[in-house]
Amino acid sequence: MANRHLLRSIAMQSLYEWDFQGRKKGHIDKIITRNIQEFGPGVEDASFVYYLVNGVLKNQPKIDKLIEKCAPEWPLEQVTIIDRNILRLGIFELIFGNYEEVPPKVAINEAIELAKTYGGDSSGRFVNGVLGTIYREMGEPMKDDKKEKDSDGSDGENGEERSINSFS
């Protein structure tokens, strides 16, 4: 398992545990530390796990609204805990991530792989559908693997929030 994929998996497992145990934000650092020790004992730099988990938690209200809007037939509490947290990770990387480090298509594919590995039979399709909808609403950034400029002339790579046309 590639290092980033492993770290993303640990982040997802940490979010799953946090969500399952009642979403107490004060416990997340202990959960992450324990999961890194258990699932990534040889990992030297786990800062990516903290970046992902803390980014998801910081932006959770916005992320959860997007899930609800893109999957209206599935109230958020009815989405399985694993799928909900894979979507949170994928949406965080898609909207708030650094495209130089993780292009949109990679963020989507990584989330789909996590869903196929850890979720149910239809999790991969569900995650693909929700993230694909968001990606299209964003105007399909980097669709042709070319660096695209935002409407203000910047490249939107500093981890700032990107707009989503019809969801804002």
Would you kindly provide a written description of the structure presented here, covering whatever features stand out?
This protein is mostly helical. It has a single domain (3-137), classed as NusB-like (N-utilizing Substance Protein B Homolog, Chain A), CATH 1.10.940. The protein has helices at 3-20, 28-39, 47-58, 60-70, 81-96, 104-118, 123-137. Helix 1 (3-20) packs across helix 2, helix 4 packs across helix 5 and helix 5 packs antiparallel against helix 6. The longest helix is centred in the first third of the chain and has 18 residues, at 3-20. The radius of gyration is 15 Å and the shape is globular.
What features would you highlight for this structure?
N-utilizing Substance Protein B Homolog, Chain A, mainly alpha, single chain, globular, 168 residues, 7 helices
Largest sheet: none
Strand content: under 5%
Contiguous low-pLDDT stretches (5 residues minimum) are 146-159
Q: How many beta-strand runs? A: 0
Tell me, what's the shape?
A: globular
As a whole number of angstroms, the C-alpha radius of gyration is 15 Å
Q: What is the averaged pLDDT score?
A: 84
Please identify which CATH superfamily we are dealing with.
NusB-like
Our measurement of the CA-to-CA distance between the termini, rounded to an integer number of angstroms, reads 36 Å
Instruction: Assign the CATH architecture.
Output: Orthogonal Bundle
In short:
The chain is mostly helical and 168 residues long.
